[in-house]
Predict the structure.
Amino acid sequence: MSAPAVELRGVSVHFGRTVALRELDLTVGRGEALALLGPSGSGKSTALKAVAGFVRPHTGRVLLSGEDVTDLPPHRRGLGVVVQNYALFPHMRVADNVAFGLRARRMPRRQVEERVSEVLSMVGMADYRRRFPRELSGGQQQRVAIARALAIRPPVLLLDEPLSALDAALREEMLAELLRLRGELPDTALVYVTHDQGEALALADRIAVMRDARLVEVGPTDQLYHRPRTEFTASFLGAANLLPVEVVAAPGDGPATVRLAGAEFRAEPTGGPVAAGARAALGVRPHRVEVRTDGGMPARLLAVQWRGTGFRLDLELDGGTPLRAEVSSVDGLPPVGARVGVSIPDGCPLVTTGAGG
Amino acid sequence: MTAVAASVPAVTRPTRVRRRWASVLWLLPPLVVVLGFFCYPLALVLRQSFVTRSGEVSLAVWQQVVTSPEFTAALGRTVLLSLGATAGCVLLGTFLALVLAFAPFPGARVVSRIVDAVLAFPSFLIALAFTFLYGSAGVLNAALGGQGGGPVDFLYGPWGVLLAEVTFYTPFVMRPVLAAFAQVPSAQLDVAASLGARPALVLWRVALPEAWPALASGACLTLLLTMNEFGIVLFVGAKDVITLPMLVHTKGIVTFDYPAACVVAVVNVLLSVALYAAHRWVFRVLGAGRSGEGRRGAVPNPA
């Protein structure tokens, strides 16, 4: 079995007295796409910089294809890096930007030309090779940045919030472009730093959720979405409502029975075994909450926001628990301030309160 | 539209005249200052350069001065010294800026502030300090004499002037280059390194090109200032180092040959104006190149 493309073993990074990354253990397989997902200051960019060699770990080791590169400078690691603000060299034309890494490697001129044409075609920028970065739009600049990183044919491509500087429409377009590129580069491992769960879900095979310089949870994308083990993952990935419930019955490895506002539900204990009588949090995605005029758990409708494709409802269960719901239509619902009925489906993930943050 | 136009009272001719006179009045004070304190003395110098000692107006003084070996030697020495000092300042200033910007060390901020402080000093102070350090009776020669070593005697020649000018004018290059380096995003340097470029290549191909306009501007300014440098040359007291400003001083103050002094001064002014024009041109060309204006094939940003 071949060594993983990237391996971090107990990597900690300190900036003075600030701990930016705390004992991170993580592997990325060959050809795998891993998203590092978390809010600002969670340590995800620092982890990427540790892989790239831009920061030196205080403790721990960084391995690329099984080789310890902790002490190697960035120029000897052979990785492709794409950053949020593109970091194109403003005094060089597009072709020279893309050729930079190849020339640094002293590749023969003819091969440089061929490779530059190849990667510029790959990202749809072949017609722009004579332009300067300032003559390109944000999306075009990011395509050039990706082409520049791919030109050196890196085994690992590191992307640090590559779409953050783009507007919503361009972001969608570039996301589709990245997905297409992934298909064309099946052997290239991808480490994708983002705070946008949509990007992570669309692009990654696995997601590593980070918070406060720590790894909270890592797992396959669908598993993390449907069966989060922590409150933080449940709320950050999919913006689930975290409803405080009491565990009524917990048979062991099967679904547990929980009580919320007088009603009982069956829930999946995804955060490990729970005991009857314990307090836990039920992760309920807003789109799974059903709101009716009568029946179900009694609640009060506090606010309605139109979101274009649907409506977001802010509710409050009897007892004061806030609840957010997303519905496609508000036809038939009473006005804001009125009492409504709420239904929550069985099978929602149940996580231990306080687990992982 | 017609109604609006009709409701706005037309600007009458007397009002327009009053406004024109008001703008002329505002222009007058600075114009008087510039003409009285700058143009008029220059015009006097220019006029005087064409008047012989006997009071005749002719080109005789010009012919006599410009063809004299003394003048050509001074002109050559001035150009050589200023070019040498500028080259030294560019090398040293760029090196210091690189170190301060990209290899920060404890106390780098203090060093930067000290360099800034040099900008506030008068130039002769450097020459004076050099006399105390490297002069015949300076610290260095006293120390060497105590060890039985021979005297070091470079200060009273072109090399002494060159060293003093490089020391004094280096901040004029370093400061703008340092500011330019500070504008280079660290992400560009990181990405360049990740692409396989060694630190030297990153500096040469990524950081330095970003600083070219600042470097060119600093170099032009230094060339301009060193060409007119007087205090350092005078205070170093190098007998053989006669530059154009020193020649003006000698002709005008020492030998009282005022017309000849005016000729040299006019040449010095013309050189300075030409250099300033070159400085503006370089800055405009580099600036336009970086902003995309005036570049062939440049197209507007589609974003």
About this structure: The mean pLDDT of chain A is 91.
